[in-house]
Design a protein that fits this description.
Distance between the termini: 134 Å
CATH superfamily of the largest domain: Histidine kinase-like ATPase, C-terminal domain
CATH architecture of the largest domain: 2-Layer Sandwich
Radius of gyration: 47 Å
Oligomer: single chain
Largest sheet: 5 strands, antiparallel
Number of helices: 18
Strand order of the largest sheet: 2-1-5-4-3
Strand content: 15-25%
CATH class of the largest domain: Alpha Beta
Length: 643
């Protein structure tokens, strides 16, 4: 090898060594220009790099800045191999930049000089070849960096927390969501064992998922108030050496599922309430009815009048509880009237005095003077007070010591506020946040259902108000009922019809409850009406089609033939008689029942009903009769049936 060839080889080798540690295109071009300056002392140098994405044009690097227009020379360099040409009176050397058998740019220099000038095209081509390889490598590095950056940006944008774990259990990569989950900086996770960052009680479950990665297994894990669904998926199918562990925050989904479960419970409860209401309202109808009936008898001994009054009031109280359950299952029209809160509170606390004393709870009442009356349903509001005071007493009893419940009524801004204050154990913030949720209770399984406070909140909201809670551990609790002062129009006071009926009616009563038949027969007969009774729909249908009646009162829910089927059959057989039929029912919670009653556009009796409501129905039925009925003797059925 000649001395020139050896020198050229050494020059090319040293240039390659310089390029070896350079992984960015800009520094590579700078090294190429500087090498050409040192080797050939040219007056001008230009390097053009085509855009990798196929865009037109090129990135142009020149030395010195603002030199000759070299665009034609660069174009020429891209059309052939390295060579020397004359352009505008100057000698130029050209060489293309090549990668993957395609031209990726060009390099040109003007007036090469020095000892290597004779071999300038060949040496320039060698430098260009080495620079091309380095530029291509830099492009691949850029692609890798862009891909890694894009991956990081994408996974960091995910709400899903994930980390990549190798066979040794070390974290290879993790996104920001995972770093936030474990409370560590992302840079501090790589290379560390995953088990060092997760809650200790998660480790065994996550390890089980890693051991069975790819089988579709999942685990639901909780930390604090958050719930996560954790799964493990191998990056390469069938190879569990590198696994992606996914942590999906299911907290909101779990809350929605819980709400759905509660909604399903409430729906089932609504169906249950319909049956319970019917079963309770039937005996209550007899109790209320007979108490009313006996109360109207003039010669009832004075010693019995007070017990009769108590029987009626307690039966009505039980009836109001049933109505509240009905209202919880379905919104219903309420019977509101102007009511003074003071007497209502006093009467409620009087009812609760004995249970409170049994629990060693002292009751106190503090009512601000001159409070205005407000439009409320007193029975409903009394139920709210009973629920809240009873809960307060039970909270105090749970401490095993005596205590005090204070009920305070006051004016507050544009509201009336009723405070139920106890000195019991109080509640934590977590429990206080859930007390208004249906079915939430801190009591044992047999002591409570978790419905009382949620029903109370619903009742107060229907009145345009709200219930708030202030409490802290060991500092008791204060429930405050806020009711608006704006006086809504009260229901018009209806005058009770005259006790003595103006028209003697022929009445058929159809019901499967013997006590109701007895009560209705005794009451209507005492008012001067002629009464026939039937114990089910089939018997009632036979009586209605074989006799003549001015009024038929039938229960809606009966065995064998229901009240609705009885009505439909009677309407086909005797439309005139069907037009005189009225219903009594203890169940209006079901939508189809209520829709059917409203479709008839005629009054109905809701069990338990008072004598006043029964008189109103008789008056409405009399008004619909075409003419005063003629007396009849026979009905075709018995009018004297055992209860």
């Amino acid at each position: 090898m000649s001395a020139m060839a050896a020198t050229v080889a050494q020059c090319v080798t040293s240039f390659g060594a310089e390029l070896a540690g350079t992984l960015r295109r800009g520094p590579i071009v700078d090294l190429l220009i500087r090498r050409l300056q040192d080797t050939f002392s040219p007056s001008e140098v230009a390097v053009a790099l085509h855009h990798e994405d196929g865009r037109a044009g090129a990135d142009l690097h020149t030395w010195p800045a603002g030199a000759t227009d070299v665009a034609p020379l660069l174009d020429a360099a891209g059309e052939g191999g390295a060579r020397r040409i004359e352009h505008e009176g100057a000698i130029w050397c050209l060489a293309p930049l090549m990668a993957r058998r395609r031209i990726t740019g060009a390099v040109v220099m003007r007036d090469p000089a020095g000892p290597f000038a004779p071999v300038a095209p060949q040496l320039l081509e060698a430098f260009a070849a080495q620079a091309s390889v380095a530029i291509e490598s830099a492009y691949l590095v850029d692609l890798y960096d862009d891909g890694r950056r894009s991956w990081q940006e994408i996974v960091d944008a995910l709400a899903l927390a994930l980390c990549i774990v190798d066979r040794e259990g070390r974290i290879r990569r993790a996104n920001r969501a995972f770093a936030a989950l474990v409370g560590a900086p992302p840079a501090g996770l790589v290379g560390r064992p995953w088990s060092a960052f997760l809650p200790p009680d998660w480790v065994s479950d996550v390890q089980r998922l890693l051991d069975a990665a790819g089988t579709g297994g999942e685990a639901e894990l909780t930390t604090g108030d958050r719930t996560y669904c954790v799964s493990a998926v191998p990056i390469t199918e069938g190879d569990a050496s590198t696994v992606v562990v996914l942590f999906d925050d299911h907290t909101e989904r779990r809350r929605l599922q819980d709400k759905l479960v509660q909604s399903t419970k409430l729906s089932a409860m609504g169906q249950l309430v319909a049956g319970v209401a019917h079963e309770l309202n039937n005996p209550l109808a007899s109790v209320v009815g007979f108490a009313d009936f006996l109360g109207e008898i003039p010669d009832v001994p004075a010693s019995l009048r007070e017990p009769l009054r108590v029987i009626r009031e307690e039966a009505e109280r039980a009836s109001s509880i049933v109505r509240n359950l009905l209202g919880f299952a379905r919104k219903q029209d309420r019977q509101r009237r102007l009511t003074a809160l003071g007497p209502l509170i006093e009467s409620t606390m009087s009812l609760l005095r004995n249970p409170l004393m049994a629990s060693r709870v002292e009751s106190r009442i503090d009512i601000e003077p001159d409070l205005p009356s407000i439009s409320i349903d007193p029975n409903q509001m009394q139920q709210v007070l009973v629920n809240l005071v009873s809960n307060a007493a039970q909270a105090i009893a749970s401490t095993g010591r005596a205590g005090t419940v204070t009920v305070r009524a006051r004016r507050f801004l544009d509201e009336l506020a009723v405070d139920i204050v106890d000195d019991g154990p109080g509640m934590t913030a977590e429990i206080a946040a859930q007390v208004f949720d249906p079915f939430f209770t801190t009591k044992s399984e047999h002591e409570g259902t978790g419905l009382g406070i949620s029903i109370s909140q619903g009742i107060v909201r229907e009145h345009g108000g709200r219930i708030t809670l202030e409490t802290a551990p060991d500092q008791g609790a204060t429930f405050t009922i806020h009711l608006p002062l704006q006086e809504a129009p009260a229901d018009p006071v209806r005058e009770e019809p005259a006790r003595a009926p103006a028209t003697r009616l022929r009445v058929l009563v159809v019901d499967d409850e013997p006590h109701i038949l007895h009560y209705m027969s005794a009451t209507l007969s005492a008012w001067g009406h002629t009464v026939a009774v039937a114990q089910d729909g089939d018997e009632g249908l036979e009586a209605a089609t074989s006799g003549e009646f001015d009024l038929v009162i039938t229960d809606l829910r009966m065995p064998r033939l229901s009240g609705r089927d009885f009505f439909e059959t009677l309407r086909r057989r005797n439309p005139a008689m069907a037009s005189r039929l009225y219903f009594s029912t203890g169940d209006t919670v079901r939508g189809d029942t209520l829709a059917f009653l409203e479709m008839l556009e005629r009054p109905y009796l809701h069990k338990p009903f008072s004598l006043a409501e029964l008189r109103e129905l008789l008056a409405a039925a009399t008004a619909r009769l075409p003419s005063p009925p003629e007396p009849r003797v026979s009905f075709g059925v018995s009018t004297d049936r055992d209860s």
